[in-house]
């Protein structure tokens, strides 16, 4: 079965099985011939041996009969010493074809008759002598009673048969036997080989031819048909097994082909996806690259913008010289812009006669836009103050409309908290006694919405003036008139006013804890006796301590005013 | 509650039965333009009657957002058909002054700080 399978699978050896079967037929024929011939020869030899034995017996019997036939005559011749009679007996015996030599002697040893036959030497003479030499010589003592006396030997008769003649029938028999045996053997061989060929070899050869026609690429395409008459035998089973194998092999090939097709499809899909992904990645990479360029450009631009913003903010602040010229009010200011500069604004303008117009505000957001809004605010406030606008509502209304319109024109949504403080170094004209028992040496009118104003009275007592109800963010809506209000703070000698932006109160430490208004109040309250500069320094130091190594997220602005 | 507008850090949700718009998360959109979708939704949410604006879960609102809310409140005030109620939280720092400003912009606005 395996050799069949191998020959099916390997196309190179597809023809070989036929040749093998042919040679198989020859081998089988040769073996059959040899076996049958050997058996036939053995049978022939056995028959010849039996025939040989039989012939020997026949020869002995024939010789004995021949001697018996002449026994009386020979004894009479010997008794009578009659050569004539003796010669008759001898000649008579020589009449038998098998007899070679006959000699009759009397009991004196004299020959009474003698005859012999000369024969042509035969090619089988040696073999004949070998086979029958021992049964060709016979002696018969010739007995006769003399004168009715006892029987005595009167002579002897020697008979020699011809081995060739004796063997002649044996050889004939052997020839016939041999010929018949050979014929029989050949007939048996022919029959056996023919039957074997018809029943086994020929179906095998046909099977091998059919198997050799199986397409190795499509083994299951054409199955082997069952040979007629072999449906149920071993050949039928073999074909069934082969067909099962071919079907299974075809199934395996089909599965392989399908797997190969799937694999090819998957490979193509993968290649396509890789190509797509590569293209996407390339696009993404290009986008990232351009975004990076954009970012770099933006960073450059923002860096430049922040520099400009910081310079705008710093260059528009009141100078130290201006602050130093202020009389009657101890003033200290502090501003530190954040790295991303915010829009903190403060200004202290001298309006003559010790009057100060103070502004503090915080524009939303950071950067150039916030800086520009801060600059516009400063200019507008200064313009209004310079034009001696004393009415808080009007001032803030004009300011708001100015900023609102400009911000709108800028396409921006910036707005700002802004508190304006009008300081006069005297008690208000309409002042009623505040009941503190202390002289009122100055007052502040506060308007606009910003952080609370901290007032530290004698003994460090804190007063907080909420500015939420004094206005609205500037630039947020077009009309804020109705929301503007004003409060007046009376100042006694030593009273301190602290203004700040949310950069101070919302300064965060590493745990994001805000500095807070409460802590600011505590610090300024504990330094209530100190000069403005010292109070400012104490607050700044405390805020810095709070911030620690954290980055500054918003501008820090602080103004300390101390009533002289 | 259905999410009307949403972004990476924020969402605007609308609860029709209670007519409540809730702003949640952190709103740091850049300029009034980016606040457009939220502004348009708020102003079209309720043509008339009661409306609640819930900002208790709005942890942060930048100045543009405050400007957007201010404009919305002014629009409602001018329309005079909507009864606006704002719910805020004391726990969120930006809301104190900004919500007070909304009240100022629309005195009829009911402010509830929880």
Number of domains of chain B: 1
Supply the number of helical segments of chain A.
Answer: 12
Oligomer: heterodimer
How many angstroms does the end-to-end distance of chain B come to? 21 Å
SSE order of chain B in H/E notation? Answer: EEEHHEEHEHE
Topology record:
The complex is a heterodimer of chains A (564) and B (114).
Chain A: H1 2-9, H2 16-80, H3 83-94, E1 99-106, E2 111-116, H4 125-132, E3 137-145, E4 151-161, H5 163-212, H6 234-315, H7 320-324, E5 329-336, E6 342-352, E7 355-366, H8 368-386, H9 392-410, E8 416-424, E9 442-447, E10 453-457, E11 461-465, E12 486-491, E13 496-500, H10 502-505, H11 517-526, H12 532-547, E14 556-563
Antiparallel strand pairs in A: 1-2, 1-4, 3-4, 5-14, 6-7, 7-8, 8-9, 9-12, 10-11, 10-13, 13-14
Helix pairs in contact in A: 2-3, 2-5, 4-5, 6-8, 8-9
Chain B: E1 2-6, E2 10-15, E3 20-27, H1 31-34, H2 36-45, E4 49-54, E5 58-61, H3 63-79, E6 82-88, H4 95-105, E7 110-113
Parallel strand pairs in B: 3-4, 3-5, 4-6, 6-7
Antiparallel strand pairs in B: 1-2, 2-3
Helix pairs in contact in B: 3-4
Describe the structure.
The complex is a heterodimer of chains A (564) and B (114). Chain A has 564 residues and is of the alpha+beta class. Chain A is built from 12 helices and 14 strands. Chain A has helices spanning 2-9, 16-80, 83-94, 125-132, 163-212, 234-315, 320-324, 368-386, 392-410, 502-505, 517-526, 532-547; strands at residues 99-106, 111-116, 137-145, 151-161, 329-336, 342-352, 355-366, 416-424, 442-447, 453-457, 461-465, 486-491, 496-500, 556-563. The longest helix of chain A has 82 residues, at 234-315. Chain B has a single domain (2-113), classed as STAS domain (Transcription Regulator spoIIAA), CATH 3.30.750.24. Chain B contains 4 helices and 7 strands, in the order E-E-E-H-H-E-E-H-E-H-E. Chain B has helices at 31-34, 36-45, 63-79, 95-105; strands at 2-6, 10-15, 20-27, 49-54, 58-61, 82-88, 110-113. In chain B, strands 1, 2, 3, 4, 5, 6 and 7 form a 7-stranded mixed β-sheet that branches. In chain B, strand 2 and strand 3 form a beta hairpin. In chain B, helix 3 (63-79) packs parallel to helix 4. The longest helix of chain B has 17 residues, at 63-79. Classes of the chains: A alpha+beta (564), B alpha/beta (114). The interface between A and B is medium-sized, with 17 and 16 residues.
């Amino acid at each position: 079965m395996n050799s069949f399978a191998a020959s099916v699978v390997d196309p190179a050896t597809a023809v070989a099985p036929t040749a093998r079967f042919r040679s198989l037929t020859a081998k089988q024929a040769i073996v059959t011939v040899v076996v049958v011939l050997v058996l036939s020869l053995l049978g022939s030899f056995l028959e010849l041996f039996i025939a040989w034995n039989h012939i020997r017996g026949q020869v002995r019997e024939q010789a004995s009969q021949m001697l018996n036939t002449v026994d009386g005559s020979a004894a009479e011749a010997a008794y009578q010493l009659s050569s004539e009679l003796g010669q008759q007996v001898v000649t008579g015996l020589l009449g038998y074809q098998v007899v070679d030599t006959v000699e009759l002697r009397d009991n004196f040893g004299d020959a009474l008759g003698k005859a012999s036959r000369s024969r042509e030497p035969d090619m089988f003479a040696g073999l004949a002598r070998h086979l029958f030499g021992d049964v060709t010589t016979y002696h018969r003592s010739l007995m006769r009673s003399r004168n009715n006396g006892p029987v005595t030997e009167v002579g002897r008769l020697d008979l020699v048969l011809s081995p060739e003649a004796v063997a002649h029938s044996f050889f004939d028999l052997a020839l016939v036997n041999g010929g018949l045996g050979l014929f029989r053997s050949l007939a048996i061989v022919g029959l056996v080989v023919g039957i074997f060929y018809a029943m086994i070899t020929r179906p095998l050869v046909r099977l091998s031819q059919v198997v050799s026609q199986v397409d190795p690429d499509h083994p299951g395409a054409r199955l082997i048909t069952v040979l007629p008459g072999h449906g149920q035998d071993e050949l039928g089973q073999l074909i069934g097994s082969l067909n099962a194998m071919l079907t299974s092999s075809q199934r395996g090939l089909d599965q392989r082909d399908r797997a190969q097709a799937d694999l090819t499809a998957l490979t193509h899909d993968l290649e396509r996806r890789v190509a797509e992904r590569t293209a996407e990645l390339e696009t993404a990479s290009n986008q990232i690259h351009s975004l990076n360029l954009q970012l770099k450009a933006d960073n450059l631009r923002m860096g430049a913008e922040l520099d400009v913003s910081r310079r705008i903010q710093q260059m528009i602040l009141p100078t130290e010289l201006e602050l130093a010229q202020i009389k009657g009010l101890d003033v200290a200011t502090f501003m530190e812009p954040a790295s991303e500069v915010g829009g903190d604004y403060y200004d202290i303008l001298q309006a003559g006669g010790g009057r100060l117009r103070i502004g503090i505000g915080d524009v939303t957001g950071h950067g150039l836009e916030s800086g520009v809004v801060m600059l516009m605010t400063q200019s507008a406030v200064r313009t209004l103050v310079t034009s001696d606008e004393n009415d808080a509502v009007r001032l803030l209304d004009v300011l708001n409309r100015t900023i609102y319109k400009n911000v709108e024109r800028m396409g921006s949504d910036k707005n700002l908290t802004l508190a304006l403080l009008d300081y006069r170094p005297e008690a208000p004209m309409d002042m009623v006694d505040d009941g503190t028992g202390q002289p009122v040496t100055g007052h502040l009118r506060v308007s606009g919405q910003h952080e609370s104003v901290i007032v530290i009275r004698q003994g460090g007592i804190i007063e907080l003036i909420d500015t939420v109800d004094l206005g609205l963010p500037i630039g947020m809506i077009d009309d804020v008139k109705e929301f503007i209000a004003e409060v007046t703070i009376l100042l006694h000698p030593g009273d301190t006013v602290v203004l700040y932006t949310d950069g101070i109160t919302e300064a965060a430490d590493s745990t994001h804890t805000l500095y807070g208004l409460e802590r600011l109040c505590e610090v300024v309250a504990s330094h209530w006796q100190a000069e403005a500069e010292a109070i400012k320094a104490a607050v700044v130091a405390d805020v810095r301590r709070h911030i620690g190594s954290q980055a500054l997220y918003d501008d820090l602005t602080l103004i300390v005013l101390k009533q002289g | 509650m259905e999410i009307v507008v949403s972004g990476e850090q924020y969402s605007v949700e609308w609860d029709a039965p209670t007519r409540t718009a809730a702003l949640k998360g952190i709103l740091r959109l850049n300029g009034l333009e980016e606040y457009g979708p939220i502004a348009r939704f708020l102003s079209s949410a309720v043509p008339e009657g009661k409306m609640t604006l819930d900002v208790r879960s709005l942890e942060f609102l930048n100045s543009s957002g405050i400007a957007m809310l201010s404009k919305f409140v002014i629009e409602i005030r001018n329309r005079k058909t909507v009864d606006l109620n704002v719910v805020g939280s004391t726990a969120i720092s930006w809301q104190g002054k900004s919500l007070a400003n909304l009240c100022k912009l629309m005195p009829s606005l009911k402010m509830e700080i929880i």
